Amino acid sequence: MNPQTSPDKKPVLLIVDDDPLITDTLAFALGTDYEIHACESRRHAIDLMRQLPEAPQLALVDLGLPPRPHTPEEGFALIADLLAHSPSMKIFVLSGQNDAVNARHARTLGAAEFIAKPCDPETLKRALSKALAFRAAELLDAVPAAEGMVGSSPAIARLKNQVSQYADSPFPVLIEGESGSGKELVALGLHRQSSRAPRPYFALNCAAIAPTLVEPTLFGYAKGAFTGATANKAGYFEDAQDGTLFLDEIGELPLELQAKLLRVLENGEYQRVGETQLRHSRARVITATNRDLRQEVRKGTFRADLYHRLSVFTLAVPPLRDMGYDKRLLLDHFRAFYAEQAGVQPFDLDEKAMARWLGYAFPGNVRELRNIVIRLTTKHAGQRLSVAELEPELDLSQDDGGVPSVQYGLALEGQSVVEQAIRHLERDKQFNLDDMLRAWEKGYIEAALRLAKGNVSQAAKILGVNRTTLYSRMGADDK
């Protein structure tokens, strides 16, 4: 139910760069096709986003931004901020810091592509136009996707079952999960599978709006309540009627508003800003967070009574690294979808590349996987890809999936297995070698059995072991 840009309006493009010559040049080159908003810093961009009536569909972001223009950290943080504000936004990193590590990490955070300066305007226009088309297709595909979340792993099967079980309940649901894991899709699934499906569905990202605007947005306001309030206006609780209201990033809700939200949840009562008249809401409230709200309660930044009220039912969206063979199912789903949208043949992965795909941790979760598929579809339509062609799209510096198999060779992007192991050991202070080896063995056995459709003899051939050895190791896994 959230409004989308009408067909007669130009798409909105946000440009964030501290060099006015670059922003002016890009605005001149792209201004005919896009409504341009230019910012010189992360803070300026966040403030602007909170003021705009609708989030931009596209963004061009420089990595080197004030106050630390010689490092990429501000740019990385801005990518996360923009996607927290609008998960459907397509972000292009346009930067002179053109090295593989920064490019990969930007993509892991959710950037659609990394483009080095200087860039030919026509090339940039084509990339933006294609991203805009993909975005429109994704929004149209969101409802059927919500009704049939892709995956068959135990974690996803449990989540699907819980969504079906809780969908028709009137009680609040708290959705927990990492960034990029698909919490918005779960919320939409709860609405679509309930008897409220024909009724309104409204979503508000609490991190994407200025704290002073949260209350009037949720509860509405009376004429004259504050500067700019020129007429009475209903809020989301009123507009949602007896439908569903989804509050994303609920951990960002200002403390002073938490009591007012608790009041609505307990007895349905609220007031428009500037009014004394009590109103009543019948909307079902669903919330989501990537924070540990229990920790926030202990810190005193989130009310304990509100947390307990919101978490009558709690759904945990699994990170992609825990979803096993679902990485293959998601690959199949997205490559078919984007190939159809682009009017091309889908790419394929050879055996070793598929093993690498299944072994990669996808630290950016489903959002990262989807963006990788988009880039591979654009660059390698109809081709069968090897590990060498796949790995430039992966962020190996952030990969917690373990030490790569020797099968991939002793060097990956110029780094030996030993060097990658050092990075892994430095990241994981609770590392246990036996647990790591058992997890990898179990994962490869499960993958081989699925590829062989349960045929143990064929799975043993895939793994390069005798059938009796495989039976023995399968039995060890069950102990």
Give a summary of the structure in a few sentences.
The chain has helices at 20-30, 42-51, 73-85, 100-109, 121-147, 154-166, 183-192, 211-219, 236-240, 255-267, 293-299, 304-310, 326-342, 351-359, 365-380, 387-390, 417-427, 433-451, 456-463, 467-478; strands at residues 12-16, 35-39, 58-61, 90-95, 113-116, 173-176, 201-205, 244-248, 269-270, 279-280, 284-289, 313-316, 348-349, 384-385, 411-412, 415-416. The chain is an alpha/beta fold and 479 residues long. It has four domains: 12-137, 3-Layer(aba) Sandwich (Rossmann fold), CATH 3.40.50.2300; 154-317, 3-Layer(aba) Sandwich (Rossmann fold), CATH 3.40.50; 324-429, Helicase, Ruva Protein, domain 3 (Orthogonal Bundle), CATH 1.10.8.60; 432-479, Homeodomain-like (Arc Repressor Mutant, subunit A).
Characterization of this structure:
With 479 residues, the chain is an alpha/beta fold. Helices cover 48% and strands 13% of the residues. The strands form five sheets. A five-stranded parallel sheet has the order 2-1-3-4-5, sandwiched between helices. It has a five-stranded parallel sheet with strand order 7-8-11-6-12. A two-stranded antiparallel ribbon has the order 9-10. The chain is globular and about 80 Å long.
